[in-house]
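Two quick folds needed for the group meeting slides. Do the first one here.
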Amino acid sequence: MVDKMKRVLTLLSAIGLISCGTFAAELVIVSSGRSKAKIVASSQAPAVKFAGEELSRYIEKMTGAKLPVVKTDNSTGETKIVLEDADANLAFEEFSIGTEGRTIRISGGSPRAVLYGVYELMEHFGCGFWSPVNESVPSLKKLSIDPKWKVVSKPAFAWRQVHSQYGYNIKWKPKARINGSMWTSPTPKELGGSDSMAMGQALAGINNNEGSKKLFAEHPEWFAWREDEKRHVRQQMCTLNDDVVKAIVSKIRSRYRSNPSRISYQSVSMRDNGKICQCKKCSRFAKKHGGASSLIVECANRVAREIAGDLPNVRIVFLAYWITSAPPKGLTIEPNVTVCWAKLRNFAVPPSKVEGHDKALDRWRKLADGNVVIWDYNAQFRGFLLPTPIVDMMGPSLREYSEKEIKGVLMQMAGFGAILMDFAELRTWLCAKLMWNPAQDEWELINRWCDGACGEGADEVKEWLKIRKTARDRKRSYGPYDPDSLHVFKPKELIDGYLLMKKGMKETENDPRTHAQMRRLLLSPLTALICNYNRGVSSAARAAKIDLPPRDKLLDEFEAICSQYKVKSFGEGMPSIAEFVKLMREGGELLKRK
């Protein structure tokens, strides 16, 4: 109990909550299974109504007592939990929790913020929203709150999105305070809604595969001229072509005829390939302004100027990535344009330790007057299931982005179909927590997740995470396209990870929730053993006198987990799970020594 209280107090301090006084003069909400309070939600907003229902539902799950939810209540002398969504003193997603007499008040700058406040209160009472499929709710005879306890909380980043299968779960997103809706359905209003940010490789959609086929047949001159091929190619468009700019503007205007009340972002970006236009106009412009990024900056600026008058709530966002990642020279960026900077780099160190990183980012920030969002990575693209030892590096990265007042972050972790990527649930939960407040200590959060999500298996999970950090720090190099686990890990370390997760499964076999979590965590070290079985793992096992199952038996276990959780994808440009298993059973190898 002492350890639990220490963890709670440490967490409150880490996320900037104010806690003072003692719990002596507590406000009782439930006692001995009987309700001592009611919930008042007078707002007409669907999210506030839902917040009241959620508050009542979780309190009933914790205590067995169901608190009534009412629209109005003028009684005195009775404890009330009041939900308010019109506090002009709070920013849009900011919330506060405090008491006034016998009233516990959860206020927000928006209905979404009120819902965040309700989940904050539930976590304060001991609930854990570890993932969409792993949630813990304590069983309590008494539920009370210190009347001197106060909370005021708002996000460090205005836009937050975690690109993982778990991060796109609509019902879980408000619990994690993920507000982005790119690549997924928008969060409905009753769950708080979401913010639109289209920042992929698109020119407002006119260059998608189907559309570009038709356009290329009708207007080949709209597309990139490749001097080496002496022809126009469909892979890119000529972004300085006047008709292309007009087509983009027309597409955006047709999409936003009913202008949204909140800001929407529309992508004007090059596609993900190097076939940029080499026509005389583009070549001269790129040479004058220092590279390919100038071609998309100029296009975005022209579109932005066209729509500024009639679509004031639509912002243009362009992707500064790969061939367009370097800032241009001699250009400024329109005030209704946002830069999304995506930089592949060494993720074993903080961004500021990568040569040239901060210099380029600061230049983009200056050009865009601070209107910059980051497309970041915590990924292993060639092997989603392989151990990816950079979980904790999200903390240093997000702190540095916050210090530079970056407006929003997308953290890409895996592709679709890779639901059980390495430590998928921890990485998604941790990223969401740090995006809200990067000042928190990532290892305190990691340990909190291990304790709550893994129960009796927590010690084994923490030990495996410690091994991974040691291996990563020893190498000090890890990129998103390093598929070879032996680049970082010693074979014995991979074996230890597998054995620790097996031990954790044994420790949790009497608890279905945490046992299932340990089974999901097993897949990553298991995959590494299979891939590296004949590349040092089996000999390391013999040397350590460890009775490791043969590779076929490990494949049986691998197939069972993948089948249970419908895992289809191994990695970008890699075989499917079915093809991988077939290759391994035939004695082949996926990874090769360099």
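Then this one, please, same format:
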Amino acid sequence: MRAQSSGDGLDVRAIAGSHVVLLAMDADKATRTGLLGFAIKRTDDTESQSYWLRGQKVFQDVVPQPISGQTYSCLEHPFQSFLWGDYSAKPGRTYSFIIRPVYGTPKNLSYGKDLEIRITTEDEDVGSHAVYFNRGAIASRAFADKFGNQPPKDANDPQDPTTKWLSRGLLEAALGFIDGTLPGETLRVAAYEFSYAPILNALADAHKRGVDLAIVYEAGDETRKGKREPTQATEANAKAIKAARLPKKILRTRTRRNDIPHNKFMVRLSDDPSRVAVWTGSVNFTPSGFLGQSNVGHIVRDAAIAATYLNYWKQLADDAEWNALRAWTDTETPAPDGPPPMGSVTPLFSPRPNDRLLDWYAQRIAEAKQTVMFTAAFGVNATLAKVFAKDAAFLRYILLEKPLKGDAETLLSTDRDLQIANGAALGKLALRAKIPGWQLDKWFLDEGHYRYEGNVFYIHTKILLIDPLSDDPLVISGSANFSKNSLVNNDENMLLIRGDTRVADIYMTEFDRIFRHFYFRNIANKLALEGKEGQEPIFLDPTAAWVEPNFGPTRMKSKRRKLFFPTSPN
């Protein structure tokens, strides 16, 4: 949902996803003269809560030695940003926010006129789309405060408080999709990593109650040290399937793939058209998929989309040889010639005969008018890196698992309008050395939670958002990593969703939640490695000098403000 409120030289625009509300501010010259920041009051009528928000940054003159983890009222220590995010919102609720400009000096504050804005967060499941994001490692500070940074006592128990908190509805939604399939209905599953007991147990129960169930899963080999051996996923899958006692007659092994059968989708079929649906997204059926990495589950209720996925599933279940499957996917889901039709949902499958879709993705990036938001777990493909390297008049964002390397780093590391963050900024995978006097350790935790096996710890979504704040957004999401290998060698699926602002708002606000968490840590890490570490992350500016970067035409923060106020004269 989107809302806007204006008054006395201040404009506020709110964008609400399901769990996030973004407040963007714009101010005329008179209003921002002498401005020390904004105090924000949040009211939740559902829970009868109304309070001024709190933060960790303070005025040094007032609090010379802030205590790690302690928060302070924004009425005394205002937020010095023209973009603020509420990451604790709940779906389907109406919130009101009062934004109060703060002036004066740190020890003698005065206040401008209040501006109120009301907005309702999106329900995760409405109409033809349901979208669920877990918390992921991004919530590490809250995780430590709430659970002492300890893993769930039983990650296989969906009711375990830690499991529920980390999942934030993602696991519940997947289980609900399975448990909600009725006797006599059909459920088809395609899985790569297939080892999470709650999912397998739910499928076993579905079969027992009369659901027509069949599962195709990774059971192939790979060459290791010159020998053909089962993949790690194959071994883990076999062990979990045995433990769940899934009957052999419902299982279909996927072995004749070229690289990895990377799908994670389910198709429900029913005589009732309203119950036909597809579950897809980035989340593998593993504990880390639901509780550790950042992931998304996406349900589409559309009979034509479900039929297309079912036909693809049949190819996988027949263990189609990958060259034959390439020809099939290219015929059934050809690469678009241009932008998908307005209001459409378009599925695309892999493996494909070539990587021409990378050129199509690059063209969409090149045609963006307001912004691009992109996640890449394994780096930025050369085709996409070249188009990102071209100068644009607006900000674009790339969120990675690990820092850029090689040619991509050379191409993309110098454009200030291209904002880049990586999840490994301050976790166990951090590149920083142990720097004497490193102060940020007392502010930030090791952010991998409890999982340190595998390849991906932080950023596992596969998302490309083109102009998500516009009235004509394009959301691209699924299992594929926007790479040549994902297109040519892997089994993959993607959705192209054009013109759905509700879906775009959910994806964009979650992208912001993840990106801003790691972007600040990247900057702090960079300063420390350059020997420039100081107290900047802790203290507020006691003057209005912090405002200027938000309005200088060439400044990053000013361009960020313009994303939300493209017609602003300021």
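Slide caption for protein two: The chain has two domains: 2-123, 125-522.
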